[in-house]
Amino acid sequence: MRAPAIEREIAEKDQRSGAPATVALTGQKMGGGSGGHAGQAIMFLFCSQYISRLANPDFAAIPSLNAEKDSQMNRIQLGRTGIEVSDYCLGTMTWGRQTSEKDAHAQIERAYDAGVDFMDTAEMYPVIPVLPETIGDTETIIGNWVSRTGRRDDWIIATKQIGPNGFGVRDGRGIEPDNVRDAVEGSLRRLQTDYIDVYQFHWPNRGSYHFRQNWDFDATGQPPTNEIVDNMAGVMAVLKDLVAEGKIRAFGLSNDSAWGTMRWLEAAEAAGGPRVATMQNEYSLLCRLYDTDMGELSVREDITLLAFSPMAAGFLTGKYQNGVVPEGSRLSLVTGMSGRASERAFSAVDAYLDIARRHGVHPVHLALQWTRSRPFPTIPIFGATTLDQLEVALGASEAALSDEVLDEVSKAHRAHPLPY
Fold this sequence. Notes:
By secondary structure, this protein is α/β, with parallel strands linked by helices. The protein has one domain: Alpha-Beta Barrel (TIM Barrel). The chain is built from twelve helices and ten strands. The chain has helices spanning 6-17, 101-113, 137-149, 180-191, 225-244, 258-271, 293-301, 330-333, 343-359, 363-371, 387-394, 403-415, and strands spanning 75-77, 84-86, 89-91, 118-120, 156-161, 196-201, 248-254, 276-280, 304-307, 378-382. An eight-stranded parallel β-barrel has the order 3-4-5-6-7-8-9-10, surrounded by four helices. Strand 1 (75-77) and strand 2 (84-86) form a beta hairpin. The chain is globular and about 55 Å long.
C-alpha cells in the first residue's frame, strides 16, 4: 500500500494555479442540550474541523506523507468488545454536501489502502447546515458503496442516533425505548447492511456541558434522576435485544459525561445489555475537558475515546492567526466560531505552531498524533473534503512525536489552559 508523493503533486498543482495549497478537513459535530428544565428549548451548537495546509513558508518543507514507506495504521480494541480497528477513524459528515458521492467513495478506497478500516457516520449527516430533507444522506452514500463493492466486512462502521432535535426527526423526540429500534432499522436500510458495528447516541436527552456550555453549566434544571435512569433502563432493554438479533455489535455514547456514562454502565450490568465501549467527545490541544474525570473513567472502565474535532475546528492549522479569516472558511460563516475565537485561543495556537515549527513537525500531524499519546485509549476522527486533503491527514499516523515535543506541549497547555 504505497502512498503517492503527495507533497510534490500538491506543489505542482499550486504552481499551475498560482494559489497556495489548502487542506480542509472536518470532524464530527453536534452538541447536547443546554441542561435547562424539562421542556425547555434545547440549543444545538454546531462545530466542524477544517484542516488547511499552511501557506507559511516555515512549514513548506515539512512532509505530510513519506512516499518511500508503506503506510499502515496501528490497531486498537474498542473498549472490551474484542472489536479491533485502525487507530485513526474516517469521518464522513461532509459527504453529500461538500463532498460528492463519487469523491466519498474514492476516500473510502484510499483510506482503506492506507490501513484505515474504521468509519464514523450518523443519521443526522451531512451537516453545514443540517437540513430535514438531507437527514440520512451520508449513510445512504456509504450504503451505495457497500452495495456496489460488496465489501461490507472490510470496514468497522459506527453510526449515531440523533437526540432531542429541531429537525423533525421522530418529531424532535429524544432517545426513547419506543424509537431506538426504528432508528436502528433506518440506519441499516440506508447503510445497506445487516449489522452496525458500533451504535452510538449522538447526545443525551438531559443536555450536557459540551460545546462551550461548560462556562455556565447548571445540571439542576435537568429531569429528575429517577426519570433519566428509568429511560436508560428501557432503552438498554431494546439494545440488548438488538445485540441478540445481530443488528448491532457494540454500544457507544457521544457528548456525554462521567455521570451519564456510569449510569449507562449500571443499566447495562442490570439488564445484561451492551456496556459502553466508546465515547465520542470533542478533544484536541485546545479542548481538553476529557483529561480528568472522563480520562480516569476511560482507564478504569475500558472506554475508548473517539476524539472529534482534533484540529480544534481548524484553529490548530494557524490559518486564523493574525486576524486572517479566509474566504469560505468556517470563521467567515460562523461569527466567533461558536465561542472558540478568542485572544486566549489565538495565543495558545501560537504556542503549538511554534513547537511544530522548531521540531520540524507538520502542525496537522502534531495535533492528530498528539491525541494518540494520551494515557487513555484514543482514536482521532478525521474527515476530508477532497482526496488531497485526506492524504495530509493520513500522513499523521507516521509522525513520531519525541518526548521533548510532548513535554513542550504539556508546558504550553499549562501556560494556556482551557482557551475556550
